[in-house]
Design brief:
mainly beta; 12 strands
């Protein structure tokens, strides 16, 4: 079940350029250029002209989590992505995200975790598909609580991404494989991640979205467990304004190692919002 789903995501990413060439409408193209939840759109001008800082994306989101665990009541994310240089045939990109988990252990909004993600990537565009080399860093911390040791890891690998429009639907698909080069406390060895997002234009400025991701994490056996599986499925509505957009969504998620110093998975339902710039 897992391998066919990931293979389908990868094939979809590879097939998007031909689909985009065959069926593209102005409404769908507009929706795609404004969608930054899946790492932004490629420039319309894919020529050889070198551009400095041609693209900057920003996102801010919050969601309420179901369940009885007092550590996991709210989640918020704040971050962005910046293209430092785009030379038409590729680009150099930096991305960052801060994630905070809030519970109700000591007060109504009690931050208990603060997690940082940094990405640096250099890519090449091959016939509409973008192939990237990626450096990925994650550092996990306990907010307002002592932590006895560092929890972090660095990974390097490759990413395949494709975008295209089918009628009024804009599709963004991505797959990546990363290997661990440094780690503290965690047992991770590699990560395989595939994700798809679809945006459908209902009328100018209003659309619906749905998609999901599947994440596999290989481990070294030191924690007496096998390959870990995480997944998320999401659906919602999107409202575009003059300077940005807001998305309202519901999601179901299975997350790997949600507690900083513990190992295991947790599942929950979530409802939330997301603000994006244009």
């Amino acid at each position: 079940m897992i391998r066919p789903l990931f293979l389908a995501m990868t094939l979809l990413a590879a097939a998007l350029p031909s689909a985009a060439q065959s069926i593209v409408t102005p409404a769908a193209a507009s929706a795609g250029s404004e969608s930054s939840a899946i790492q932004g759109a490629q420039p319309a001008d894919a020529g050889r002209r070198v551009q400095f800082l041609p693209r900057a994306l920003f996102h801010m989101s919050g969601e309420h989590l179901s369940g009885d665990d007092e550590q996991f009541v709210w989640e918020a994310n704040l971050g962005g992505e910046l293209d430092f240089l785009d030379w038409g045939l590729g680009r150099a990109t930096f991305a960052a995200n801060y994630q905070v988990m809030l519970g109700e252990e000591f007060k109504a909004f009690d931050p208990n975790q603060g997690n940082y993600m940094l990405d640096a990537a250099g890519s090449a565009r091959l016939g509409g598909v973008e192939v990237s080399g990626v450096f990925h860093h994650v550092s996990r911390h306990r907010s307002d609580r002592a932590i006895p040791r560092a929890v972090d890891w660095n990974m390097v690998g490759g990413r395949l991404q494709g975008k295209g429009a089918l009628g009024v639907m804009f599709i963004d698909a991505q797959a990546q494989f990363l290997g661990v080069i440094q780690k503290s406390y965690v047992d991770y060895e590699w990560e395989l991640d595939g994700r798809v997002r679809n945006d459908i234009v209902l009328r100018p400025g209003i659309g619906v979205l749905f998609g999901g991701n599947l994440r596999l994490v290989g481990v070294d056996g030191s924690r007496s467990r096998g390959t870990q599986i995480g997944a998320r499925a999401e659906g919602g509505v999107r409202f575009d304004g003059q300077m940005g957009a807001v998305e309202l969504f519901v999601a179901v998620e299975r997350r790997i190692d949600p507690v900083t110093l513990e190992f295991g998975t947790m599942s929950w339902l979530a409802a939330g919002f997301r603000f994006l710039n244009r």
